[in-house]
Amino acid sequence: MTDARSNILDVRGLRIAIPGRDGERVAVSNVDFEVARGEVLGLVGESGSGKSLSMLAVMGLLPRNMQVTGSVRFDGQELLGLPARQMRSIRGGRIAMVFQDPMTALNPVMTVGAQIAEAIRLHNPSLSRRALRARAVGLLELVSIPMPEQRFDQYPHEFSGGMRQRVVIAIAVANDPELLIADEPTTALDVTIQAQIVEIFDRLRREKGLAIVLITHDLGLVAGLADRITILYSGRVAERGAIEAVFRRPRHPYTAGLLAAVPSIDSTSERLHAIDGTPPSLAARPSGCQFHPRCAFALPVCAERDPDFQWFGQSMAACHRAAEALPMAGGDDGR
Amino acid sequence: MSAHTILAIGPGRRLYSRFANRLSWRSAPVILGAVIILGAIIIAISIPWWSPYDPIALAGRRLQPPSWGHWCGTDALGRDVLVRTLYGTRYSLTIAALVLAAGVSIGSLVGAVAGFIGGLLDSTLMRLADITLSFPPILLAMAIAASLGPGLVHTAIALIIVWWPIYARLMRAQVLNVKGLDHVDAAVVAGALPSRILFKHIVPLCWSPILVNMTMDVGQVILLASGLSFIGLGAQPPTPEWGQMIAEGASSFYSWWIAMGPGLAIFLVSLSFNFLGDGLRDLFDPRSRAST
Does the keyword Transmembrane helix apply (chain A) (predicted)? Predict the structure, then answer.
């Protein structure tokens, strides 16, 4: 049996490779992260860092030609290599997903109510029409959509972006999942709507004990919602740990750079802080530490050897110099 | 922007106003086409109740030129040409409906499955469609009709075989487009079965170009069916089918009115369906819409 604080999702040594004519390209390698019940994990990284790819691997949605190895345990059950039938009953039942763009995530030719009802019926085939409708209306209410009875019979084009994202969330939580994967759920929304969506996530977590993996590059969102953070860089984990510890005392220069790049309203400097250089392409990954070509503190050893994780009580970082007190930007004064 | 655009709030009004907005001289052909088609359908259904003559029985003297008694004259067997032409509407519309219904059903099913599943199945089905499409339509239809023997049903079968690949291609292209949309992934994530995803979340979004193409193709089917009847592979005498009637008219060439009735009918109905198809395309496809 699993106790309340056990991990609902445990990813160990995840590796995703894309075979090509000139050998395979490793998009994600040696990625570990875990989410406990009722906990929010922020999965942060630049575009192409492998954060979405990792979550697609968890859902078993990667194209068949990609080779996924490692271990993805959901509530103790290994998901990699699970037969399609069993995967289908987990998807939308115990694990749900919210997509980035609410404008395209709904079927334009079905009413919103029918789509929610479909999500429920897929996992409760015996429910009557009336029961389905009642539950769907209840879900619309749960995500704070006014006049849910009337809204049930409307089409997605009659909803605004923020309202659609709420419908998408309603569909995702239709079957009381234990884990919700939200892939940049607020990126396509404007800031006031973002706050409402965050509020809904927070409430679902508190009221239903929902564990959430929040894929994003918005550190503010992570700071507001997440308990733990995993920072990916170039398909590897740079740093991970409790949100407090990582934000207060980043151990990896990349984390520090990200935190420094967040504009601050009371900062006196006129220029925005940026990390020099660009992330390595999939075809030309550097040797040793993935970050060393852009790192201000790189040593010769960084180009030679991939750093191991060093553990600092609340967080761990993959950096040769993680234990040193480097004069990095970000951290304490950042937020 | 006109007042119609501002009023277009409800879902029902939207389609209406999209149409009403462009209700200018440019829509005249569409309306004309729609009226003629509607008229043809009404005639096809109601003709037995009000027809003054029997289409296959003697109605008067042979080879009479047009007169008040016989507006389009009589043919070599003394039958009224106008009545026969109007009866011909039944055959032409029925065969067009049959061919398109079957062609679209078979074609879009094949195309949807090929596009959705992909891989070897996709290649096999689409090469089959390519092979069919590589023959000139009239030649292939003739060959099939000739091998099956004359008769309207055989004509229909021949035309279905000629027509399905067009819709298979069209549907496949649409499915490939829609397959990549987020809501399809969302359905996968919700745990839906592949068949449900295809028929509930992909195919319903694919119909508009197929609908437009169907409307355009009605005229083509009628033409080709008449063509087959004209060369004796389709309807057999004394069926008042247009192509068959023109063939009869060709044998008494100086009685020009015999071929004129069915000829005009083919022309009008084909043109009307083309007009309607053009209008539907404008309505569905924002790119081909003239800026207003």
Answer: no
